[in-house]
Amino acid sequence: MEQLERYREQARALVAAVAAMTDARLAYEAALDALEDARARAVLEGLEGRNEAQRKAELLERTRAEEEGLRSARAVYRVAEANFEMARYAERLEREALRALEAVAGVEERR
Predict the structure, then answer these.
(1) Where are the domains of the chain?
(2) Can you tell me the distance from the alpha carbon of 54 to that of 72, in angstroms, rounded to the nearest whole number?
(3) Which residue of 8, 45, 80, 88 has the fewest CB atoms within a 10 Å radius of its CB?
(4) CA–CA separation, 17 vs 93, rounded Å?
(5) Tens of pLDDT along 46-79?
(6) Average pLDDT rounded to a whole number, residues 78-99
């Protein structure tokens, strides 16, 4: 029964990891959209500069907050992905341990 409870706990952790990864992905996508919107707004408002390099520099300056938000959201998403992978492996290990115990118990019952 202890092994079954450990498996259930790992399954709950896996569900929580999926939820966290989904939230992080949605936040990343929202940050990406915000950056694209900020870039489009800056272009529509007009960029000053005599050449392309100056205009790019101004665009980067005007979208700095959105760029930082995107980087932050991407970092959170990567951590959530890693946590999901770890939770998935832990759940698999517990599932296999439970199957092994069930197999041993089945053999003992036949004796």
Answers:
(1) 2-110
(2) 26
(3) 45
(4) 16
(5) 988 889 999 999 999 999 999 999 999 999 999 9
(6) 96
